[in-house]
Specification:
With 383 residues, the protein is an alpha+beta fold. It has 15 helices and 14 strands.
């Protein structure tokens, strides 16, 4: 976590990063400084935590960059944080672009905290610059000791509060962040789908669903006026199958990214029942985002018999899940599940879809539920 103090027109507030766009928006509104889709720049009056980032105090900082930087830093384990802070202390004049790039370039710096074992020094250094070692290489203790001795005797070590830092010239410092668009980095890992947005040679990745303001800020960084000007491709889908990916892509193409994001928000709320939602979508034969949102909101109004292949499967499900149809175990061999299931299917007007059988709950009609979509649309139009 990074906590800083910012102020505007005599009003001040503390902001903890990383945070969602809605949280940052609320903090800025507290001091009358709502930044909308434009990146908010603020003078950092103080850095409460961590102490190592006191270098940010007294600077005019892009808070969106600070938020992205905090996400990167928050993903580090203790060892990586020490390596990062040591590397930061060994250099001078870091700006936010440089600090973000440093999070992607830890291998450019080796941190040695204990010099009592040349073998251990060599192992740490080699693991750092190579990204790993084979089991065979790890057995070469003399080789690692020689590497450790060579490193310490090189005279390149820079003393810091964390230990000796060595800059590895054989590992180039790469500019992953160009100061314009943020590199692909899924901080929470909770996205249902990732959308790669390309505009005039620039690319940002949207992790959907997300706050609408996050989408607007991404568009602004790309330099585009609307998402319709951009090419949008989907990647890293966590929706179970390619049909959902195609539905989301169709909504983006026909309705837009904001409507697709709204639909994915509704889907995320029933993420554990996406198979049931897909069955409801196929049963209702709908494609538009508004109707899918309505089905997600009313998913409890459906009965879904997962993996059901015939009427007998439906009949057996009812006897096992509804007390009024519970069957004595001794009668199971004599009970006609198929005939019972046939009556249920005819009575409920359900359907067998890919993945199982689905129908409406008792005394509910599909038309009534889908009618809610039209009512919401009319209300919004009236507004």
């Amino acid at each position: 976590m990074i906590t800083v103090k910012i102020s505007n027109d005599g009003e001040s507030t503390h902001v903890r990063f990383p945070c969602r766009e809605t949280e940052l928006e609320g903090k800025l509104e507290e001091i009358g400084a709502y930044g909308k889709q434009n990146a908010p720049h603020f003078y950092i009056e103080d850095v409460t935590e961590p102490a190592e980032l006191a270098v940010l105090k007294g600077r005019n900082i892009n808070l969106d960059e600070l938020n992205y930087f905090a996400k990167r830093l928050d993903s580090f384990v203790t060892k990586e944080k020490r390596q990062f802070y040591a590397a930061m202390k060994s250099e001078h004049s870091w700006d936010m672009k440089g600090l973000i790039n440093l999070t992607f370039n830890l291998a450019h710096y080796t941190l040695i905290q204990d010099v009592s074992s040349m073998e251990a020094v060599g192992r740490i250094h080699l693991l750092n610059v190579n990204g790993g070692l084979s089991a065979e290489e790890l057995e070469k203790k003399e080789w690692m000791a020689e590497e450790g001795k060579a490193l310490l005797s090189s005279g390149r070590g820079i003393a810091t509060d964390y230990g000796l830092v060595f800059k590895n010239e054989t590992v180039p410092f790469q500019e992953i962040y160009d100061g314009e668009v943020f590199p692909d980095y899924d901080y929470t890992g909770t996205a249902l789908i990732c959308a790669e947005v390309d505009y005039k040679g620039f690319r940002e990745t949207l992790y959907l669903p997300d706050d609408e303001l996050a989408l607007k800020k991404s568009l602004a960084r790309l330099g585009a006026e609307t998402f319709e000007e951009c090419a949008i491709g989907l990647d890293r889908v966590c929706l179970g199958n390619e049909d959902w990916m195609q539905r989301v892509q169709d909504v983006i193409n026909s309705e837009g990214i904001y409507e697709a994001n709204h639909m994915l928000e509704a889907m995320q709320r029933v993420e554990s029942q996406l198979d049931k939602l897909e069955a409801a979508v196929n049963y209702a034969d709908v494609e538009g985002s508004a109707q899918i949102v309505t089905l997600a909101k009313n998913l409890d109004e459906f009965v879904y018999v997962k993996y059901a292949e015939d009427h007998a499967d439906v009949g057996k499900y009812w006897t096992e899940h509804y007390a009024e149809y519970a069957l004595n175990k001794t009668l199971e061999d004599y009970f006609d599940y198929g005939a019972f299931g046939d009556d249920l299917v005819n009575d409920r007007c359900g359907a067998f879809v890919r993945g199982g059988y689905i129908c409406m709950a008792k005394n509910r009609e599909l038309a009534d539920i889908l009618g809610e979509t039209e009512d919401e649309s009319m209300t919004m139009g009236g507004m």
